[in-house]
Amino acid sequence: MDELLGRKVPYAADAEQAILGSMLIDPACVGDVVANVRGSEFYIDVNRDIFETVFSMFSAGAKIDPVTVLDQMRARGCWKENSSQYLMELMEVTPTAANVLRYCAIVRDRALLRALGQTAADIQEHVYQSGEQAPQVLELAEQSIYRLRKQSAAGGLVPMTEVLQDTLSHISQAAAGGSKLPGLSTGLADIDECLQGLGAGHFILIASRPGMGKTSIALNIAVNAAKTSGKTVAIFSLEMSRQELAMRMLSGESHIDLYQLNQGRLNTEEWGRLMESAGVLSQVDIRLDDNPTMTVAEMAAQCRRIEDLGLVVVDYLQLMQSAGSGNSWANESRTQAVSDISRMMKVTAKELGVPLVCMSQLSRVNESTANKRPTLAALRESGSIEQDADAVIGLYREGYYTQECEDPNLAEAIILKNRHGRTGTVYLRWIPEYTTYVNDARQKDEY
Q: Which one of 162, 193, 239, 244 is the catalytic residue?
């Protein structure tokens, strides 16, 4: 088809041959090559067959030279009558293996151009043939381009040898780091210990009844993550305005009463603390969106454009419009809508490769009982939230229900589900004047 249209398919035969010749001349470079280029990125079939043969030998720890490669090609069924001559030619046209990584970069570049062309054709097909609405086609286009930009190996069948190499590397890094968390820190030590930080691609749900402080703990986590990681934190608030969020962050950072801050009743010393806190928050990369009609697709599209994204925070799930179409719950069942949103949240977290922390309202299922602590049962009425989330944290304060309790500002963060660690109850302290949560000195309880 491309030839008929007068278009030349982008590929670099000489670079493909130089990679193969380098591996035959100097088998010591094979490790670097397989880490930088894949067999699927070779355009010429015979070159792809030879590369995959060498890769399989490298994975098995076999000796690599022209004779053993030819023998393995016979075993794999890709040997041809001119294979021996072609291997010799590959070695002759390759002057040195010193530039093999440059050859790899050229091959990957051409492969990316081919993939981009195919993606463009697929998008065009959806535009003219699928009958889908513009928002769905736009979402498909953005997802496709984002996958190409990342050049991620996620998805598809990957040899166990590659997975094991990555896994062992992760374990080694964790061991070398000592007490360092494998995930992003929340700033709340006992929660970090239970969750092992916020893991890349994890969907973490923080659930409670209204007024328990979901937004507050979300902002705590966001500010701490931005400070400690140096990465961009994206906050999507469907309930509060950007200014309200900034006011809360300033109150928590400066330790100035939120009511006083809203009224502007500050003395000279407090003005100084406020300016200092504003300076601190200005140094971190936190981005705010307060669009009350946000959809998951729109949120994901914005996040894909952030180069160094570290964390996504959404407040809160039940206010989000349904995934993809942007239709409200008036046009579909509430349970189905929330299920779709929850599933897309998890998919988005995995696609972006960053933790996604989402707030959620609990149903009134526990309100009529003596023990009003949150349970997973209160989530099950909202579709598939429980099964989609990697971790579910329920917030509870006895002081929310009665000020006559012994310690009305003692809070419990109940780890109801944790796919990657322990469950249990973590004690926090609620500071209402700053609308913030801090660590509490007492021990945590495990289930």
A: 239
